[in-house]
Design goal:
By secondary structure, the protein is an all-alpha fold. It has two domains: 72 residues, 434 Repressor (Amino-terminal Domain), CATH 1.10.260; 38 residues. It has six helices and no strands. Helix 2 crosses helix 3. The N and C termini lie far apart (33 Å).
Length: 112
């Protein structure tokens, strides 16, 4: 059974090919190496969130465009937060990532 990394990678590859792009083309547009794109597409690695958003943007697709096998709930609040993240610069995203990790830890501690 294919894992989630493989499913995500296959979808990225499918949309990249539809756009007539090579792995190198995509890599250059989002600031990664061709090798990193290959590892994402083959399911070796997940893309970092900010890179995933860049990939979606370059390929002209949205998370909801991925196959139903990939969990992506239609949650208005989550979608609103993600839409806001699109507007952030790289330093702002890094700051948000730190805050989210801290918040995640607080929530996990509270659940115990």
């Amino acid at each position: 059974m294919r894992n989630l990394k493989s499913k995500i990678g296959e979808q990225i590859k499918k949309y990249r090919i539809r756009q007539g792009m090579t792995q190198n083309d995509l890599a250059e547009k989002i600031g990664l190496s061709e090798k990193q794109i290959s590892k994402i597409e083959t399911g070796v690695h997940y893309p970092k969130f900010e890179n995933f958003i860049k990939i979606l943007d370059v390929l002209g697709v949205q998370m909801k465009d991925f196959d139903n096998e990939i969990p992506c709930e239609n949650n208005v609040l989550r979608n609103s937060i993600i839409k806001t993240l699109y507007k952030f610069t790289e330093p702002e995203l890094k700051y948000c990532a730190v805050l989210i990790k801290q918040l995640d830890k607080l929530i996990k501690d509270k659940r115990k």
